[in-house]
Amino acid sequence: MTAWIGGLxxxxxxxxxxxxxxxxxxxxYLRWITAMLLQILILYGFAMLGQLRLGIYLIxxxxxxxxxxxxxxGLFHRGSLPFEGLHxxxxxxxxxxxxxxxxxxxxxxxxYDNFSHWAVMVKFMAFTGHLPGAGDQLxxxxxxxxxxxxxxxxxxxxTGFSEGSMLVxxxxxxxxxxxxxxxxxxxxxxxxxxxxxxxxxxGSFVFNIAIRLNNLLVDYVLPIxxxxxxxxxxxxxxxxxxxxxxxxxxxxxxxxxxxxxxFFVVVIAGYFLVTLLKTGRTGWSVPGNLLRAAGTLALGSLxxxxxxxxxxxxxxxxxxxxxxxxxxxxLAEEGTTGLLKIARKFGxxxxxxxxxxxxxxxxxxxxxxxxxxALRLIKGRRNGLLKTAIGVDLMFGLYDVSLLGMYxxxxxxxEAILLDGFExxxxxxVILGLYIGAMVVVRxxxxxxxxxxxxxxxxxxxxxxxxxxxxxxxxxxxxxFAITMMYxxxxxxxxxNRMAHNTLPLQxxxxxxxxxxxxxxxxxxxxxxxxxxxxxxxxxxxxYYYFTDKAVGQEDFMVTPAVFKxxxxxxxxxxxxxxxxxxTVLTQKVYHxxxxxxxxxxxxxxxxxEH
Length: 611
Description:
Layout: H1 2-23, H2 31-48, H3 52-75, H4 88-104, H5 112-128, H6 147-159, H7 163-179, H8 191-204, H9 221-235, H10 240-255, H11 262-279, H12 285-314, H13 324-350, H14 356-379, H15 385-409, H16 413-416, H17 422-448, H18 465-499, H19 504-511, E1 519-526, H20 530-534, H21 537-546, E2 548-554, H22 561-569, E3 573-576, H23 581-591, E4 598-602, E5 607-610
Parallel strand pairs: 1-2, 1-3
Antiparallel strand pairs: 3-4, 4-5
C-alpha cells in the first residue's frame, strides 16, 4: 500500500511539471520526457551540492504543488489547456506499456553490468543519500555520469527500493521518450502512419535483444533519448527559443547518462544547426543563428564538464575515464600490432551476415530505398527518403569508426579482441537509425495521401477503391505486427525471468535477505562455477546484495584443512548459494558441521547460520 501511495505522489509531482511545460508551449508528446529530464538536471544540481535526499523531496513536493495549483485554476476556468484528443496510438502505448511495466515490476536483475555498476549505483544513492566520494570503494566505475541512477533513485525513494521498481522507473523513462516520436506526425488521426510508428517502437526492441528491458544498462536509453531530441527539434523548428531550450535540456541529460553519449549529441547538434539555418531568416541572421547554436550546445555541455571536474578532483584513479593520457597509455601498451588485430576482427564482424546489427542496417536501407522507389513509381512525386538513407548510412559509418576507437583505445586487449559487447553497442545506433527512418517515412507517406486537407479526410477520401483497400490492409498489417512484436517482447522477458531461476543473484536471494546498510564486512561467496569467480561476477553480485565493498568469490578449495580454516577465518561471513562439495567436506572436517547452502557468520569455533 505504501508503494502505491508513494507512486501516486511521484506521478502527481510529475504531472505538475508536465502541466507547467504544456503552458510554456512544450508539445504534449514531449512533455513527459522533458519533465523527467528537467527533474534529473535539477536533482543533479542538488546531488553535486551534497543534498540529494532533500532534492528528491523538494522536487517532487514542488511538482505536487504545481499540480494542485493547476487543478484549482481549472475550477475557475483559468489557465486550462486545449484537449489534444485520444488517438489509436495512445491506447497502444497505455495498454502495452502497462503490460510491460507489470512484467518488469516482477523481474529480477541478472546481467553482469547491473552489479558492476548500474544497480549498485542506485542502491548506494538510495540508502546513503549522496553521490559516491573518494572513500566509497563500493562504486568501481566512478567516472560514469549519474543521470539514470538519479532518476531511478528518485522513483524508488517514493515507491520503495526493489529490483522491480528500478526496472519500472527506467522503462518509464524509455516509454516517455518513445512517446515523443508521435510529435512528428502531420495528421494524428491517420491510423496507418500511427501504427507504423508503433511498429517501429516494438520492432526496435529486437535490436535490444542482447540485454532486453529487464536490465538497467543504458544501451537503449541513449538512442531513444536522442530520438526524442530529434523529434523535438522538428516539432519546434519554427519556435527558436523553445527549440534552443529543448536542445540544451536533452544534450545536458544525454551527456549525463554515459560518456559514450557524445556521438548521439553530435547527431543532435548537426540536425539542430541545420534546422536553425534552414528555418531562420537569410543574410545577417546566419551569424546570429550560429552564435545561438554555439551558446545552446555550450550550455547543454556545462553539467557534463562539471561532472568531469568532479571526477578529476574527487577520485585519483577512475575506470573508463575520458582523458588523452589514458588513451595514450592504452596505445603504448597495445602497440600497432594489437590495434591491427582488433581492426581486422572488427571488420570481419561488420561484414558478417549473421550479425543482428548488420541485418538491421540492411533492413533499414531496404525499407527506405524501397519506399522511395514505390512513391516515385506509384505517385510520381519526389521525396527525401533516398537522402535519408544516405544520411543514415553516413551516421552508421561514423559510429563504427568511433566504436572501433573505443575498442582500440579504451578497452583492455583481452576484451577488445573478442569484441566484447559488440552487438549491444552497435545495436544502439541501429535503433537510432530505425527511428529516424520511420519518422521520415510517415511524413512522406502522409504527404503522398490523396487528400491533403485534414478536415476533409474521411472514409471516402481516397483516389480509388483499390487505394482505400490498400490503406486499410496496410493499417491492419502494421497494427497486427505492432501488437504481436510488443507482446513478443513481453513474453520474451517473462521467459528470461523464468530461465534465470538458478542464476547466482536469485540464489543469493534464497540464501538471505539483502543488506541495506553500507558496510565493510568481508563476505566470501562459495561458488562452484569457476567462470563466475574468474570474471568477478560472484564478487560484484555479492557486493550489490550485501552492500559491502569487501565481497569476493572463490571456487577452488583444494587445500589442507589448516589452510581452509585460515582462509575462512579471514572473512566475517560466508555465503554458499549453491552446493559446493569440497567446501562441505572441509567444513565437516574443520568445524564438524554439515553445511549445504545459506549465509553463515564466521566465528573462531564454528559457522553460525543467519536466518
